[in-house]
Amino acid sequence: MKKSNESTKKFYLIREDVLPESVQKTIKVKNALLKNSNLTIYDAVKEFNLSRSAFYKYKDTIFPIDRLEEQTRNLTLILYVQDEVGMLAFVLNKIAELKGSVLTIHQSLPMKERATITISLNATNIELTLEELMDAIKESPHVDEVEVIGMSM
């Protein structure tokens, strides 16, 4: 078993609305700097009322998930579904229609007409953001919820 050490970095997926304000502002500053190459860090942090020290503290530690998607497109999703005949086939067809490649599938045994499906997929050829992909799958009949539980990095 691998021993834990302080140099090992852990990554988390976290919703933007629960991030501290300084982290949210850091994301806004980074986006502004990407969009306008003439903008200086000084002017950008001033525009968003963020201290330069806070910007430098967080700038290399926070990345929107869509930016990660540009580099890595292997995802693991969990679907909470109603147990209906043909539902899994419909979801798999939707993923294929979006040009996704399913790597693994695991479906739990239905209990009280409900089940979970874990799907790992390569989404390299999918031209949607992660949120759009999740929404497209959720539109499938009998799919109640879709969540990301992993991304390879």
Automatic annotation (TrEMBL):
Q: Where is the ACT domain?
A: 76-151
Pfam families the UniProt entry points to? ACT_4 (PF13291)
Q: Which InterPro entries match?
A: ACT-like_dom_sf (IPR045865), ACT_dom (IPR002912), UPF0735_ACT_dom-cont (IPR008310)
Q: Which residues form a coiled coil?
A: none
User: Could you name the domain of life of the organism this protein comes from?
Assistant: Bacteria
Which NCBIfam families does this entry report, sorted A to Z? PRK04435.1
Concerning its family, UniProt says: Belongs to the UPF0735 family.
Write the protein's name.
UPF0735 ACT domain-containing protein SAMEA4384403_01117
Which species is this UniProt entry from?
Mammaliicoccus stepanovicii
